[in-house]
Amino acid sequence: MLRTIISCFVMPTHRAFTRRFVSGLTKGLSKVLINAVTRDLTGCYRHRHTKPRPASHRTHIGSFQRTLFSSLFVCVGLLGWTIAEGSNNTLEEVTVTATLLNEASPALSATVLAEPQMQQRGAVHLENMISLAPNVASSSGASRNRFFQIRGIGERSQFVEPVNPSVGVLLDGIDLSGSGGALTLYDLQQVEILRGPQGTLMGANALAGLIALRSTATDNATREVTAGVENNGGRQVGARLGGTLADGLSGRIAFQQFQSDGFVNNQWLDRDDTNQRDELTGRAALRWQATKHALEVAAYYTDIDNGYDAFSLDNTRSTLSDEPGEDDLTLKAARLNWEYRGGAYDSLLQLSHAKTLSTYSYDEDWSYVGIAPGWEYSSFDQYRRDRSMSSAEWRLQSDIPASTRWALGVYAREESEALRRDYTYLSSPFHSDIDTLTTALFGQINHDINAQLAGFVGARVEQRDSDYVDSAGVDHSFDLSYWTGRAGLIWQYQSDQQLHVTVSRGARAGGPNAQLLASIDALPEADQGTLSGLGTFDEETLLSLELGWVTFWPEYQLRSQLTLFAMDRQDQQAKASLVIPRNDGSTAFIDYTDNAAGGKHRGLEWEATWRPYESLTWRASIGLLDAYFDDYISATGEDLSGRSQPQAPEWQYSLGATWALHQRVSLHLEAVGSDDYFFSDRHTVQAPENHQINVSLSGEFRSWQWTLWARNLTDSTTFTRGFGTFGNDPRKEYRLEAYRQYGEPRVVGLTLHYRFMERPK
Fold it and tell me: The CATH number of the domain where 435 resides is what?
């Protein structure tokens, strides 16, 4: 049966995985629910056509990609013929901790990245790991990738306007959504990426999905120091200490400092550190555990002091800025968790507070005074944000083995954000304040219909009240209430084979287009009336349908998860921009959020782990995505219907293998890649197709553990953000051209860990 299942992924005649194929594969999941299993087992997917779209908006995978994918799947299929029968080694269990009901976890499309995978990559930040998750991407416009996209949904930048993130980010339950620069990885146990709408089993609500970072447990016995070096002047030091302090009492403390000169050379200033990184992470936790009760307190501190000098007039890694920017963030956070396990039910109460101070600035002209007399301009833009968030979450779930299990919770979050913008073309600094109170009631019921079939239904009701005021005279209040939910069936047709279908609804609030409103007075009068109607944008909703197949063959040590999904977005919040001449003759670049009529997202995700021998482990993932606008006419009258969604590559893959070369030495090889995609809704510039090779060699000697690693070994060129239809070079009289921000080049490093041995008692 295994050989047949694997062969279903091999396309006859090397047919390209085009958008049409993905859309055809996933269109109408109600039909897929009836037919997909039969077709899978017979090894055949039938090509179904979607409604035609303009040819200019279609993309295709070239011959190299077809060869790559075909070879990849053929290799996997061939490996299926050589599985070692009766292997006794076992795969380590991976647990999703971001939800209450463990029974519901298999019905989630989730990727779990563990600490060993982070060490293999020499990863210090979440952006270094995100490529391992199918249909997950990230974007920059800063020193680190600050925003994340799941299945083609998610923000890509933030300037004046407040942001209600589509992708939630939690650190031990503390909401850090939108603060991507703080997501360092030191002393994390794992990162969980949950795809699809969330909110029926946790306090945080997320339209597209959730990224949950989990610190190492306090009772994990650790006494370790870390040091590392890498090219581009990279260096790091760290230490962590944890374990049992007394009967029922455990604690943990960890810190890390990472520094790098960056990979940008400023020719005008003759410096190679204007895009430098200086990142300090500190965490501490104390836990008291009794028979039924547990109390845990934790504190977090992150200090990011990074430079920002990334865009080049020459579209290289050499810049000409005379005023390099900065990307700084200070995070101070704390939480208090109380847990109760009473036999009949379990309870969790979490109180948390987080405060972030951030500064983001850049040299808007990307040049120096004197570069082109008569044509040049000089401009600098700076954003300072003071954000504070306090939350309380109480969750309760049944704990008695029964056919019906339940979980419910209440959630409240109070947050405020104060912005100060200093900009060359503002007569005085711009100020804004937004205060938001969010309250929610959520819950889910799981019921065993019979020995093999179970169902679940969950709902969430949320109230969001916001007050926004700024120095441009905007004073607006938003009082919004909406609901989300999910329902599904889980069929355990064999002890290690499971099918599930899930339908879910997600939503996120609307808000003001603050940058547009603040700029209206500086625009020609003819444009002011038209643009004032774009001052606010409405709530967005999403309906998602998933079909999943989770399987584990213990005799082959093969675990696999396959998910088909279709998502329809209503009143999609789409990022747009305007280029308008100011009254003084300069040009205004204005970002705002529009409500598109809709969006369609169809796709497939497959992840597998296979250990044929005790010394060899394979991991693979595939993401296919067809995401496009539906019936969308922009504010400027442009028909964007059928266009691809930004930050949504049609395919992504990762393939890795770890060999134990010796009892204490292992080799890890990994290939990751993605299709090209547009950076923005304007469709003027793309990130090209990309393939990367990562490799690491790890070993142990007495109390030492070492890892020699390389990310992007072949030095493949990557980009993290781009602009098109944009003129910024005075030497070319501001001719319109595309600009891109470069991603990380080849990075090679060595990391050492020294573990202090326990003293004999």
Answer: 2.40.170.20
